[in-house]
Design brief:
The complex is a heterodimer of chains A (about 190) and B (about 150). By secondary structure, chain A is mostly helical. Chain A has eight helices and no strands. The longest helix of chain A has 23 residues. The chains are: A mainly alpha (about 190), B mainly alpha (about 150).
Chain lengths: ~190, ~150
């Protein structure tokens, strides 16, 4: 279907509430990538992110009648996805499966500020970032990646997490501080 | 003299500055804080660097075929959910009916010794108690531990 022919979210939600699976399918298609990448924020793995994001859509469909078509549905959907992911991460911890994800190849921006005596390979730094993010609490990793990887604004993050904008700023500070400490523990140093 | 609230507010503004979300009036407020607490400037540079590093934490994108089959995967899960519900209801009814028939036939049959009847009854009752206990535990855990990982 050409993009211009796709009805807006509110119309798709209204039709989905009436039981129209085709409309729900269009909604899924519009948001699948966003849901998948958000799930990867928590799980790291492709398989888990795919499974959990699809399961979140299934749960959205089951509770679709609770939705108000006049409101933005995504914060509601994100709550479902987030809870699924938190449970999955908790279960993985019980099975002692560490968080891991494959980060992009390419130059690491912060690498230029590494002290000359501790120059390391780019891949080594990428590995550090991966491990450091895996070592901090899931909620800290979530807020860092929502801002720095997914590029959401403070207002959008506040809506997704149902918290005030000021709290977003405070939580970002705390999360980044933990990330910084985690990087430092692995030997990463910042230049002045 | 610094107050915890003042420093906390300064750090909030610092995050906004790093993320490009600082309003004009907040800009001068932050500048005043930096003049008052020079250590904030150093902290600012460290956090700016941390943001740059975190921004690199992108994911390797999956193959395009994942998106082609995505909705089908969701649809199958939706359909299977209904299938599982129907199958479970049917299985529970059949199981209960089967158990009733077995128990009835065993207790009516005079050729089966009384001790064997008690053993069979004990096995069935034990299995039911264990099943109910496990199901109840699962439901309780699901309800009580749902948000355990969320730290605010």
């Amino acid at each position: 279907m050409p993009e211009a022919d796709i009805p807006d979210d509110k119309e798709l939600i209204r039709r989905s509430v009436d039981g129209d699976k085709n409309a729900f399918g269009m909604l899924v298609t519009c948001y699948m990538q966003r849901a998948y990448y958000l799930a990867r924020t928590f799980t790291g793995s492709h398989e888990d992110a795919l499974d959990l994001s699809q399961e979140a859509f299934v749960r959205l469909w089951r509770s679709i009648k609770k939705l108000d078509p006049g409101k933005d549905f995504f914060p509601y959907f994100y709550t479902i996805l987030r809870n699924l992911c938190f449970n999955s991460v908790r279960d993985a911890k019980k099975r002692a499966m560490p968080f891991s994800f494959t980060i992009n190849d390419g130059e690491v921006p912060g690498a230029a500020t590494i002290l000359p005596d501790s120059i390391m390979m780019q891949s080594e730094l990428r590995g550090m970032v991966e491990t450091a993010l895996g070592n901090i609490p899931t909620a800290d990793r979530e807020i860092i990646l929502l801002k720095d990887v997914h590029g959401y604004s403070y207002k959008e993050i506040a809506a997704l997490l149902a918290i005030p904008v000021g709290t977003v700023m405070s939580r970002l500070y705390i999360a980044r501080n933990r990330f910084r400490k985690s990087m430092k523990e692995m030997g990463y140093e910042h230049s002045e | 003299m610094s107050t915890p609230n003042e420093k906390e507010h300064a750090r909030q503004l610092m995050m906004a500055a790093i993320d490009g979300e600082l309003r004009e009036d907040e800009r001068s407020e932050l500048a005043n804080y930096v003049r008052k607490y020079p250590e904030l400037e150093e902290e600012f540079n460290v956090f700016k660097n941390i943001k740059e590093i975190a921004m690199n934490a992108n994911y390797t994108p999956p193959p395009d075929s994942v998106w082609d089959k995505y909705w089908l995967g969701v649809y199958n899960k939706m359909e299977r959910g209904i299938g599982w519900i129907l199958l479970s209801i049917g299985a529970v009814v059949l199981l209960l009916y089967g158990l009733y028939s077995v128990i009835e036939s065993i207790f009516v049959d005079v050729e089966i010794p009384w001790w064997l009847k008690i053993a069979i009854f004990s096995t069935i009752a034990g299995a039911i108690i264990l099943l109910v206990s496990v199901v109840r535990e699962k439901i309780f855990l699901h309800k009580s531990e749902r948000y355990k990982e969320i730290k605010r």
